Amino acid sequence: MTEIKQNQKDVYIGLNIGGTHCSVVVGDPSFIIIHRTAFETHTERGYKLILDEFKEHVYEILLKHPDFNLKRIGISCGGPLDSKKGMIYSPPNLPGWDSVPITKIFREEFGVDVAIQNVANACALAEWLMGAGKGTSNMIFLTFKTGMGAGLILNGRLYSGTNGLGGEVGHIRLAKTGPIGFGKAGSFEGFCSGGGIAHLAKSVVTERLANNQTVGFCPSAKMIPKINAKRVAMAARAGDPVAYEIIRISAEYLGQGISLLIDILNPECIVIGSIYARNEELFKPLVDRILHSESIPAALEVCTIKPALLGDAIGDYAALCVAIYDDKF
């Protein structure tokens, strides 16, 4: 890196690695994004070419802005990964990324400290530092997206566990049978994720149609493969009784999963993203009913359930917050 000169601006760079899209964001210590570049992942290229494209964008940014003093790089990526070793271990959406020493690669390239967190932890940092959980000391972030994972902020610090597996709540079994999520039937992820809701809906609709019952949002078996969580939620909001029943099942298991977290971790705030955040009016009354019947009353009394605030921008802010986090806290 070049020698620091007067009038240079301290900046942090976040690298958001996704199976479909990636982004590079530059932000200042106040979490303000001052530059963003996005590109398609094209996973078939292999990780080396994808990381080379990240490097090219970083170099381009630094060359265009000689006043930037790069302090740290943060990476947000789907797991499994080891945040302490800086290794990525074969994420399902990134084929061929087997034991990639990603923090070492970027540290040697740019001469600055590099940190990595899985998506749930990175998003937890973003919602804690600048979103719905700002100002709390004990917060849980639930992804509720394609899968179900958690990021844990405990006693004012990100908790990732002994080897980066803290917060894998999707693996908790909530029922003996049910949709498969995280490789386990009846799991938290099986009932409370985009894939899980779609699987549950297809099962319910198949049974209803086989019994010659009417399903408004899916009137024929030919449409079953097209069912997804978004379609179910839209139909439930429009008053479709079968779609609402599917949401009810998911919401009640969401309440059960949250009750376990409240009783075990006693958080101030639980922030829920994606599917819940977009459909809070459907989920909240059902979840609240379960919480009041299952949770320790005194623990529930001090815990607020909130939808995530950062919306579609959370991926960019998450990567940036991974970069800023250790420097500020």
Summarize the structure in short.
The protein has 329 residues and is α/β, with parallel strands linked by helices. The chain contains eleven helices and 15 strands. Helix content is 41%, strand content 22%.
What keyword list fits this structure?
329 residues; alpha/beta; Nucleotidyltransferase, domain 5; 2 domains; five-stranded mixed β-sheet; 11 helices; 41% helix
Per CATH, what is the topology of the largest domain?
Nucleotidyltransferase, domain 5
Structural class: alpha/beta
Strand-and-helix sequence, N→C?
Answer: EEEHEEEEHEHEEEEEHHHHEHHHEH
Could you describe the largest sheet, including whether it forms a barrel? 5 strands, mixed
* Biggest β-sheet: strands ordered side by side in the sheet: 3-2-1-4-8
Name the average pLDDT.
93
Alpha plus pi helix count? 11
Work out the number of β strands: 15
CATH architecture of the largest domain: 2-Layer Sandwich
Binned, the helix content reads: 40-55%
Question: Gyration radius, to the nearest Å?
Answer: 21 Å
Oligomer classification: single chain
CATH class placement of the largest domain: Alpha Beta
- Proportion of residues in β-strands: 15-25%
How many structurally independent domains? Answer: 2
Distance between the termini: 25 Å
Instruction: Report low-confidence residues grouped into runs of 5 or more.
Output: none
Q: Report the principal-axis shape.
A: globular
